[in-house]
Amino acid sequence: MGAASEDLNRRMLRARDLMDRSYAEPLDIPSLASAAHVSAPHFIRSFRSVFGETPHRYLQRRRVERAMFLLRTGERPVTEICLEVGFSSLGTFSRTFSAIVGESPTAYRRRGPLPMAPSCFAMRWARPSEHAPRPGAESLPS
Predict the structure, then answer these.
(1) What's the pTM value of the predicted model, to 2 decimals?
(2) How would you write the pLDDT of the chain (142 residues) with one tens digit per residue?
(3) CA-based diameter of the chain, in Å?
(4) What is the C-alpha separation between 107 and 140, in angstroms, rounded?
(5) What is the CATH number of the domain that holds 93?
(6) C-beta separation of 54 from 29 below 8 A
(7) Residue 31 CB: number of other CB atoms within 10 A?
(8) Within this chain, do residues 108 and 122 fall inside the same structural domain, yes or no?
(9) 78 and 92 belong to one structural domain
(10) Any alpha helices (H) in 22-109, and if so which ranges?
């Protein structure tokens, strides 16, 4: 890997770290690109190249991961959780959650409390898979 490639990776990691820390805040492409010291179009292309998904999709997934935890560890209303993790619309939250997890936030909550396990294992186990089938989608043969 060349020096230019390493520098680009560091810049993209800086932006991703910002998304991880500030996932619940309103983040936009220009501010993320600024944190990475690149233009907005270059940021989107580079982020996707480095991490395999767009910055928007990554941020949505991080927000959904946090919502998954909150849904199974408390009794707060889904709308409150939706707003806490950074979504401004319950409809968008529910649609995004269902697309990533494969079921609605309410159905996910019905699974009950999270089992006791070391936090590193529990976080990995609960992380939604990018390859999870979407509701109504046919599985492709291997």
Answers:
(1) 0.77
(2) 688 889 999 999 999 999 999 999 999 999 999 999 999 999 999 999 999 999 999 999 999 999 999 999 989 999 999 999 999 999 999 999 999 999 999 999 998 887 776 767 666 666 766 555 444 444 444 4
(3) 50
(4) 25
(5) 1.10.10.60
(6) no
(7) 15
(8) yes
(9) yes
(10) 29-36, 40-51, 55-72, 78-84, 90-101, 105-109
